[in-house]
Amino acid sequence: MTVTMTRPKGDAEAVAPTPPSRRYKGFVERRPGKLTYLALTGLALFSAFPLYWSFVVGSHDNGVLGEVPPPLGLGPNLFANVERAFGTIDFAKALANSFMVSGAITISVVLFSTLAGFAFAKLAFRGRNALLVMVIATMMVPTQLGIIPLYMLMAKIEWTGTMYAVVAPGLVSAFGVFFMTQYLGEAVPTELIEAARADGCTTLRIFWHVVLPVSKPAAAVLGMLTFMTAWNDFFWPLVVLTPEDPTVQVALSALASGYITDFSLSLTGTIIATVPLLVVFVALGKHIIGGIMQGAIKG
Amino acid sequence: MKNLMYRLDVKGSPYLYIVPFFLLFAAFGIFPLAYTAWVSLHEWSLLSETHTFLGLQNYRELFADEYFWNALRNTAQIWVLSTVPQLLMALLLAHVLNQRLRAPTFWRMTAVLPNITSVAAVAIIFAQIFGKDYGLVNWILETLGLGRIDWQAGTASSQIAISVMIIWRWTGYNALIYLAAMQAVSKDLYDAASLDGASSFQQLTRITVPAIRPTIIFTVIISTIGGMQVLAEPLLFGGGSMTGGSDRQFQTLSLYLYEVAFSRFDFGYASTAAWAMFGIIVIVAAINYFLTSRLRRS
C-alpha cells in the first residue's frame, strides 16, 4: 500500500504537476481538444447537480414539489425554510457543537501527528521500524467495529450525550502520523538536525526551532483533511449523542427520520450542514486537493 | 552529568514524542476493538449487570442467522454495484484529467466536490431524488413514457439507488488517487506511443493501467473496507429505519450491527457480528495482498 503514497514535497508541487511543453523536432505535445472540456463540463454538472438540487428543494414550499413538471429553478422560500429548520431542531447548537468538536480533533491530531512524525522520521530509537509498521497496519483497521465497547466505556465514565465522547476517539489518527512522517522525512534535512545537536540543542529545541516551522504546510493540509472528516463523521456521533444536543450530522439525521419526510425541511438542513465546508473548500480547495493526492485514506 | 543528560535526551526522549499517539490510540482504537472479542463470547445486554459466559454460542447463532446472511448478501451486492462502475469511471476521469488542461485545479475541485459533502447530506438528497411520488428520477422516467418505480420497495432498485449515492460521493476522490499515481508514470512512454499512433484509449489500457496496478489494488482494498461500513445511506434512504426496508431488502451489515446493538441492546450478539465483519475484511485484505505479491513477482 505504501507504493501509492506519492512522496509529499509540499503542496505547491502536488497541485502544479504539469511539466512545460516539450519539443521533439517540431512535434509539440498536443493540447486537449474541445471534446475533453465538454466531457469535463458534463462531469462538473454531474458533481454539482445534487447540491444544486438541495437548493432547489430547500427554496420551495413542500406542496410545490408534487407539481408536474417539478420546479427546476430556485424558489422564494429558502429563508423561510431555514428559519423553520432552526425552529425544528436546534441547528445553532448543532453548528456550534460541530465547530467545537471538529476544531478540537483537528488541533489534537495535527499536534500529536507532528510530534510522532518527527520522532519516526528523524530520531533513532529502539523499535522504531516495528512501531512504524504498527501505525501503518492500524491505518487499515476499521475502528468503527469497536463501537460497542467504546459506547460501554463512555457510558461508564458518563460521557454519553456529551461532546467529550465524540472528541475522545478522534484525538489521534494513524493516517496523520503516517502523513507527517512521510513529509518530515523529506522536508527536514538530517544534516540540519545534526548541526543543531553539535551546537548543543536538546531534542525539544530542535523540534521547536527546526521541525515546527518546516512542518507548517503539511500541518495545514492535514488539518483541513481532519476537519472535514470530523465535520462529516456520522455513525459514532449518532450512537453517542441525542437529538437534543447534536452535531450537525446528527441533527440532519433527526430531521430526515420519521414516517413522513418533509423534504423541503430536510434538504434545507443539508444546505445548512454543507455550506460551512463548501466555503472552506472554495477558499482552500487547491491545498485540499494536494493533500488528497499526497496520499489520503478513506476515513 | 551533562554527558548523561545528553545521552538520556538522545536515547530516551524519542519515546516521549510517540507516547501520546500510542496511548490514545490504544485507549480509544485498539482496546475497544479487542474488547469486542471478549464481549462477543457473552450474553451481554445494556440493561443487565450480569454477563453470562456463552463460549462460541453467539457465533453458532450468527452463522444460522437468516438476517445476518441477508445483510452480508446485500452488502456484497451493493459493494459490487458501487465499486465496479466507480473505479472504472474514476480511471477514465483520471485519464482525462491527466492532460495539460487549462485550470487544472478547477476541474479537480469539481471532481472531489461530492466527497466534501457529508454522507448524511448525500443520503438525504438522493432519497428525495429517488422518491416514489415527488422524486426527480421518477418524473424523468414518466416523461420518457416509462413507469414510475418504487425505488425503496424492490431489492434491486433500492440497492441501485444506494450504489448511486456511493458512486457519486467517491468517484472523483478515487480519480485523484489514480491521477497522483499516473503522474509518476514516465511521460516518455506516452510520447513514444503517440508517435507510434496509439490512441488515447490504447494509451490508457496499455500503458497507464499496467503501470498503476498497485494503486488500483489499493483502491479495491480501501473500497472493500469502506463497503463493509456502509450505514448512513441505507439508514437515511429508509427514513431512519434500522431494518433497511420492510423486507430488509437493503439492510447492510453495519446497519444490522446498529440494529442489534442499539435497538435490541444485545451487545454480545452485536459484538459477534462486528468480529465476523472484521474477519471478512481480514480475508479480503489477505486475498488482495496475495494477488499483489504475485503480480509483483511476475
Automatic annotation (TrEMBL), chain A:
Gene3D superfamilies registered for this protein in UniProt: MetI-like
Positions in coiled-coil regions: none
ABC transmembrane type-1 domain: residues covered: 95-284
GO biological process: transmembrane transport
Transmembrane segments annotated in the record for this chain: 35-55, 99-121, 130-151, 163-185, 206-231, 263-284
The UniProt record lists the keyword DNA-binding: no
Keyword Transport (UniProt): yes
Protein name: Sugar ABC transporter permease
Topology within the bilayer: Multi-pass membrane protein
Keywords from the named record: Cell membrane, Membrane, Transmembrane, Transmembrane helix, Transport
Organism domain of life: Bacteria
Family: Belongs to the binding-protein-dependent transport system permease family.
Pfam families, A to Z: BPD_transp_1 (PF00528)
GO cellular component: plasma membrane
Subcellular location: Cell membrane
UniProtKB/TrEMBL annotation, chain B:
Annotated ranges, domain ABC transmembrane type-1: 72-288
Annotated localization: Cell membrane
Annotated transmembrane regions: 15-38, 76-97, 109-131, 211-232, 267-291
InterPro entries to which the protein is assigned, alphabetical: ABC_transporter_permease, MetI-like, MetI-like_sf
Membrane topology: Multi-pass membrane protein
Family according to the record: Belongs to the binding-protein-dependent transport system permease family.
Protein name from the UniProt record: ABC transporter permease
